[in-house]
Specification:
Elements lengths: L15 E4 L5 E6 L25 E7 L2 E7 L5 E7 L3 H10 L1 E7 L7 H6 L4 E9 L1
Parallel strand pairs: 2-6, 3-7
Antiparallel strand pairs: 1-2, 3-4, 4-5, 6-7
């Protein structure tokens, strides 16, 4: 994976939105038992070339914030929660129509560089829709 420069940080154990240096939107997702990456679901250790059509992401904007739902192949929910993301991140999701998911054995922003340095990050790109 190419180097990812983080522009914001999340809370311990909570996913956080990021923009890659080329302004592609990413969601950095710390490891959790309810959202383990399953073998054969399209995860890779290299930057994906295109969104995986078997996955879906849906960003719904409400008066109380933004809710992101990501579903694995077969329609099973992999992530469902509120996001605090800036205007640039939301604009990038509309421009690119894809969201890069980054996960691995880390629990927060301070553990991410170590997981990345050891090649333990898993990546997946999914199409994203807006409501």
């Amino acid at each position: 994976m190419s180097r990812v420069e983080l522009t914001r940080t999340g809370l311990h154990g909570v996913p956080w939105p990021e923009l890659l240096p080329d302004l592609r939107p990413a969601l950095v997702v710390p490891a959790a038992p309810e959202r383990l990456p399953h073998p054969g679901d399209g995860w890779t250790r290299h930057m994906p070339e295109a969104p995986d059509p078997a996955w879906t992401a849906h960003l719904d904007s409400h008066l109380d914030g933004h809710r992101l739902t990501v579903q694995r192949p077969g329609g099973h929910t992999w992530y469902d929660g509120h996001l605090t993301a800036g205007r640039e991140w939301h604009r990038a999701t509309r421009t690119h129509r894809a969201l890069l998911l980054i996960t691995g054995p880390f629990s927060g922003p301070h553990d991410l560089p170590t997981a990345a340095a050891h090649g333990h990050l898993l990546l997946l790109s999914t199409p994203i829709r807006h409501a």
